[in-house]
Amino acid sequence: MFNRRQFLTHTLKGSSLVALSAMVPQFVSRTAQAAAPGKDNILVVLEMSGGNDGINTVIPYADDLYHKARPTLRQTKDIVIRLDDHVGLHSGMQGLRPLWQQGQLAVVQGVGYPNPQRSHFEAMDIWQSADTKGRTTTGWLGRAAAESDNHLGGVPILHIGLSRLPLALTGAPGGGAVTVNSANSFRLELGGGKAGQQKARRRLLEDLAMPAGSGTPRRTQAGPEDLLSFVQRRQVQTLTAVEQLRELLEGPNAVPRQGSGLGQKLQLIAGLIAKGFGTRIFYVNLDGFDTHSNQAYMHNNLLAELADAVGGFFQTLKTTGHDRRVRLMTFSEFGRRVYENGSRGTDHGAASCLFIAGPSIKGGVVGKHPSLSDLDADDLKFHTDFRSIYATQLDGWLGCDSKAVLGAKWDHVKALEPKT
């Protein structure tokens, strides 16, 4: 017999339950299996870090002001991937053409928020926390995972990448996000850095030792029924499911890691979905969009990589029969200025565009391209608050209460609601 405090302490010190080996009762593995998925909807969030130039992503090719403002960066009507009589996608985004033709790509224009920040760090924190006032220290997806506690699998959020855990993924009480990368298979992060992990451990230990409203410690010796109740907590569900993840990544029938870069990350996600792993929120990153100079070549390559990766991702999902329960949403911390600079690049701006892809999307251009003549300090004016887009995904797709996650009620973007 081992006590709860010992069980929790040993569990939280490791990245999985492998180190506990035979010490872990049979019901722990059963708990992980019970957290395996059904047919729940899945959201993949793709961060385009650096501040993507939305004006040269969704291009107002029919506007003469665009051509005047972008003498070396402009794309003409015979080059763009035409979406309608006013705008078209950058010519490098051929990989998205099939999704567009199938009505499975929503191109959302004029996205932003009031009093925009042009600092990478501050703007990214706003998008990831969904708080323009800087008062919230947790992420909107982490809070969504907590709100969806009864529906998520053992690993609520999976982050595919080399960087530290993004702010967007922090805030799931008692749970955590798993980071997977090619250099370090995977590691468990509780979110909020070392201080956040220590706080989570302390809170859980106190919870175990002291029942609510009581001044006396709980009995420390726990029987099977007590432990069974305890491991149903999300923290332990997450940790036990990490072992299942290890098997999927490193076992004899491991998910293949095809290609490189963003394509590899998305193919890994597609493979995990096909294998039946229970995560409902995935997060990936594509860096390099801070294009202050010589933008044309770099931006073309980045947009091509994104489009090819997303297009290939949904093709794989369709082959395995899971595409209809997956949505992918892009975002970037800000757009770029309307006028190109003297270095044939663009500087930090404000409003921009984003994409939402998947068979559940009605497809099409959502909202008008912001005016190039009516500017706010040389920046595009937004007309769609990004939190309305978040609310639409939270309520309509993930099935959790957006008001609880975002701290306020935001109107849905009707064009982005799931098909009925």
Written overview of the protein:
This protein has 420 residues and is an alpha/beta fold. The chain has one domain (37-182, 257-416): Alkaline Phosphatase, subunit A (3-Layer(aba) Sandwich), CATH 3.40.720. Helices cover 35% and strands 14% of the residues. It contains 13 helices and 13 strands. Strand 3 (81-82) and strand 4 (88-89) form a beta hairpin.
Concise summary:
By secondary structure, the chain is α/β, with parallel strands linked by helices. 35% of the residues lie in helices and 14% in strands.
The total of beta strands comes to: 13
Poorly predicted residue ranges: 1-36, 190-222, 227-232
CATH class: Alpha Beta
Query: What characterizes the major β-sheet?
Result: 10 strands, mixed
Order of helices and strands: HHEEHEEHEHHEEEHHHHEHEEEEHH
Overall outline: globular
Based on helices, strands and strand pairing, what is the structural class? Answer: alpha/beta
Question: How many domains would you count in the coordinates?
Answer: 1
Named CATH topology: Alkaline Phosphatase, subunit A
